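Morning - DQA inputs below, output right after.
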Amino acid sequence: MSSKPVFVLNGPNLNMLGQREREVYGALTLAEVETRCRAHAAALGLAVDFRQTNSEGDLISWIHEARDKASGIAINAGAYTHTSVALHDALKAAELPAVEVHLTNVHKREAFRHKSLIAPAVNGVICGFGADSYLLAISALSSLVTSNKKV
Ligand code: DQA
């Protein structure tokens, strides 16, 4: 097991999973997504630090914290994905393996979701597989952490 956990960071409105637009985001709650992430990561020998906030500033502070305390970052930044230069800059500053995650296929949705400002600051993007997007991201991080491939 890596000595440092992977941080799985969730941004705005993801605390509403299971209630929010279920036809778009599905019926699972964020707590259920977290349980699946923990089980999947444990099977890969990784610990998970799973967090959610509605605040852009918290996400930025957590990414700064990750620089020392995490082995990698999976981030579903929610709508901040499409707006936040500050999150892009924080991910660059973290110098860690990082994966952008979305439950939905943002490219099949409204045009304003097609642009990600954080994509250039991560190793890769996984979207469109529901809660499995998180598990795929953790698998990708596991390989990146092993080979220490930073952004
Ligand atoms: C999302 C996609 C974003 O466009 C949206 O703002 C979200 C959720 C997803 O997981 O599919 O809040 O990140």
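Note: The helical segments are 22-25, 30-43, 56-69, 85-94, 132-147.

O.
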